[in-house]
Design goal:
By secondary structure, the protein is an alpha+beta fold. The chain has helices at residues 52-57, 108-123, and strands at residues 4-11, 17-19, 22-24, 27-34, 37-38, 48-50, 63-65, 68-70, 83-88, 91-97, 101-107, 130-132. It has one domain (4-126). Helices cover 16% and strands 40% of the residues. It is globular, with a radius of gyration of 15 Å.
Length: 141
């Protein structure tokens, strides 16, 4: 079973974070750790942002969710498609292909707690901060 964790990377008003030649400031990014490894720091995920709204929606039921997108918010730009999220008893499965096949299995309670903790951190952010990506364009079918 994989360990799932989310955290915020807050970029202040006097800071600039550049991802794929796009500059970000006064915002926060949701970071994802699986088994203690920051997934978005891995080369295969370069230029990828986590779409927290879809992660939060994935708590509701099994389905396809656009959990990852390009730094610009246009999923097709980085080749992202929706990933399969499967709820089965006390487990949550993520299955997707992106350069290779990925399959993660999370404890459902731990998954929910990590998402709720992150959501509380987002709510606590000062009002001038926003979560990136601000808008997302889903892949064309």
């Amino acid at each position: 079973m994989n360990k799932f964790a989310l955290s915020l990377n807050v970029i202040g008003a006097n800071e600039i974070k550049e991802i794929d030649d796009i500059q970000f400031s006064s915002c926060a990014f949701v970071q994802i750790e699986i088994d203690g490894l920051n997934l978005l720091d891995q080369k295969v995920f370069s230029g990828t942002l986590l779409n927290f709204n879809e992660v939060r929606r994935s708590l509701q039921s099994s389905g396809k969710y656009l959990i990852f997108t390009c730094a610009c918010g246009i999923a097709d730009d980085a080749g992202w498609t929706e990933i399969d999220v499967i709820h089965q008893q006390d487990l949550v499965y993520w299955e997707f292909e992106y350069d290779s096949d990925f399959r993660f299995v999370f404890n459902a309670q731990q998954y929910r707690e990590a998402i709720e903790t992150c959501e509380n951190a987002i709510i606590a952010l000062p009002s001038e901060f926003f979560i990136e990506p601000q808008s997302v364009v889903f892949p064309s079918t």
